[in-house]
């Protein structure tokens, strides 16, 4: 893995710690998951401070005559809900989070010890990680630059302290979703490695069949090789089943945040279509609400947003259904 990629992972890790999203530590070298008193106290204080955002929900303009302003308010509410859920889960499910990450690290180490990833798959994993970090950063940065005008319109506030706090807390939700993405990317990479091993077994079984037909292999050696392939396939099936159970555990830890994120995607789409419609038929309304700089920058932000969203969605869709835990003996009987 390139040094710059490791820096990206490290920066994201410390961002999660600083914002209080993580209430425990992860050793970046060994993958060990542990808790310290300093991180626990800091995370507790940060969690208390986060609840200071809740009163801002009363200042949201829910009765705006403009649909995109109402949607902007709902998006902020969903971000706050996702953030509150994460803060609460940091303490109510802290041990479950740590246990799941430990099991994920153990599963990864066990898998790589027996079936090392191919160079192509390692490169694909790193490239996906780098692209996600880059586009996520670009989306967050552009959102922060544009959100000042959106929030001023939404909250009717012009405070030198309140608006930056709102902008910052709105971007923290992206860190939460990134944590979820990283867990699923690890699992999907292992599952892709597992698929490669299954393809190797299928190829070897075809080669054995050809050798058996041409009588170039002795019956005893043929049966021995078939038994070995059957054992390997059964071990892969058991490993895939365990990885699938781990994936379900990760899903459950982020289920409410995922629901908020899904709603935000749909609301963003509605807002974009509505603003395009209003701009086409009544552009004066949009021109009065936003500066020319914001209007010119908005297409760039949407480009970043949808590229980042596509990377996230494709990784989630790549998660397969489990195969049978225990295979039958048909390969051995062949």
From TrEMBL:
Highest rank taxon of the organism: Eukaryota
Cell location: Cell membrane
Primary location recorded for the protein, binned into one broad class: membrane
Transmembrane parts of this sequence: 6-26, 33-59, 71-92, 133-151, 163-182, 259-278, 290-307
Gene Ontology biological-process entries: sensory perception of taste; signal transduction
Membrane topology: Multi-pass membrane protein
Keywords: Cell membrane, Membrane, Receptor, Transducer, Transmembrane, Transmembrane helix
GO cellular component: plasma membrane
InterPro entries the UniProt entry points to: 7TM_chemorcpt (IPR013604)
Protein family membership: Belongs to the insect chemoreceptor superfamily. Gustatory receptor (GR) family.
Function: Gustatory receptor which mediates acceptance or avoidance behavior, depending on its substrates.
Protein name, entry field: Gustatory receptor
Organism (species): Stomoxys calcitrans
């Amino acid at each position: 893995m390139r040094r710059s990629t490791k820096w990206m992972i490290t920066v994201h890790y410390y961002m999660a710690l600083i914002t209080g999203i993580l209430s425990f530590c992860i050793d970046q070298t060994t993958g060990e998951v542990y808790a310290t008193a300093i991180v626990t106290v800091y995370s507790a204080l940060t969690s208390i401070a986060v609840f200071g955002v809740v009163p801002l929900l009363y200042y949201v303009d829910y009765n705006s005559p403009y649909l995109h302003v109402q949607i902007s308010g709902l998006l902020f509410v969903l971000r706050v809900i996702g953030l509150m859920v994460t803060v609460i889960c940091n303490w109510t499910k802290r041990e479950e989070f740590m246990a799941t990450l430990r099991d994920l690290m153990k599963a990864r180490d066990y898998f790589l010890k027996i079936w090392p990833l191919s160079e192509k798959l390692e490169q694909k994993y790193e490239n996906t990680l780098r692209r996600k970090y880059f586009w996520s950063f670009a989306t967050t940065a552009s959102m922060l630059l544009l959100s000042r005008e959106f929030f001023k319109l939404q909250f009717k506030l012009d405070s030198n302290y309140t608006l930056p706090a709102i902008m910052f807390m709105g971007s923290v939700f992206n860190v939460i979703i990134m944590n979820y993405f990283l867990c699923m990317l690890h699992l999907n990479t292992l599952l892709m490695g597992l698929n490669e091993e299954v393809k190797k077994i299928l190829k070897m079984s075809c080669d054995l069949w050809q050798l058996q037909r041409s009588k170039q292999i002795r019956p005893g050696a043929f049966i021995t090789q078939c038994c070995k392939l059957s054992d390997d396939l059964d071990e892969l099936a058991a490993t895939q089943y365990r990885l699938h159970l781990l994936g379900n555990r990760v899903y459950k830890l982020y289920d409410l945040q995922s629901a908020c994120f899904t709603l935000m995607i749909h609301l963003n789409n509605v807002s974009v279509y509505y603003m395009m419609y209003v701009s086409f038929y009544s552009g004066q309304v949009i021109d009065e609400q936003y500066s020319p700089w914001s209007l010119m920058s908005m297409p760039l932000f949407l480009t970043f947003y949808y590229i980042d969203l596509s990377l996230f969605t494709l990784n989630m869709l790549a998660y397969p259904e489990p195969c049978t835990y225990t295979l039958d003996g048909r390969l051995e009987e062949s």
